[in-house]
Amino acid sequence: MFSHRLLLLFILLALTSTLCLAAPPQPWYEKYHQRRVTVPQSYYEGLWLRRQTPLKLNAVRDVVCIDPNVRFLLFDEYAASLAICGGIAGGAATTTRCGGNLSETAGRSGRAAFGLRALAAGAAINVSKDAWAACVSAARETCPQGSFSGVCVGAATVGDVEFRLESV
User: Which residues form the signal peptide (predicted)?
Assistant: First the structure.
């Protein structure tokens, strides 16, 4: 009788210790934390611009939320906003403003794409990085998620610039 109980106790301990030591289906840090992802410097530049730019709601007009169900990665939206005019990311004086005589331009990154068009005939897009960040921030304040369109006030040589954030 004593050996019977001892044998049952041994089997119970062996089973519970085996179950307790089994490997989890995924590592604990993946369950409770997101995987580590490296992002390029332009992501941090976009965050810095958004943080440093004061919110100017009058920098933009006629904002329309197109599809609030569209989801963009934050990095894609920032990188697309800095990819307009051939790229305005960086700190050099030549990259802080749209150059040339562009009446239309686009910036794309991942699934996010910004399209800009000068509204006045013969006008060129002439927006600085800070003014562009103010326009995007004010539009994002109106439409917190999804795609949108609006008009950036005074962003062209003559008149305003129409812009649109869409999913591609």
Answer: 1-22
Tell me the residue range of the domain where 115 lies: 42-167
Residue at 133 is within a domain:
yes
In a domain, 37, yes or no: no
Look at the chain and report how many structural domains it folds into: 2
This prediction has a pTM of 0.68
88-97 pLDDT, tens digit per residue, is 776 655 557 7
Half-sphere exposure of 167 (CA within 13 A, CB side): 13
Inside any domain, residue 107: yes
Whether 84 and 142 map to the same domain: the answer is yes
**Contact in structure between 54 and 139 (CB atoms under 8 Å):** no
Tell me how far CA of residue 54 lies from CA of 2, 31, 40, 168, in angstroms: 80, 37, 24, 29
Residues 47 and 39 sit within 8 Å (Cβ to Cβ):
no
Is residue 25 located within the same domain as residue 52?
A: no
Contact 136, 79 (CB under 8 A): no
Tens-place pLDDT, residues 37-78? 676 666 676 667 666 667 788 889 999 999 989 988 888 888
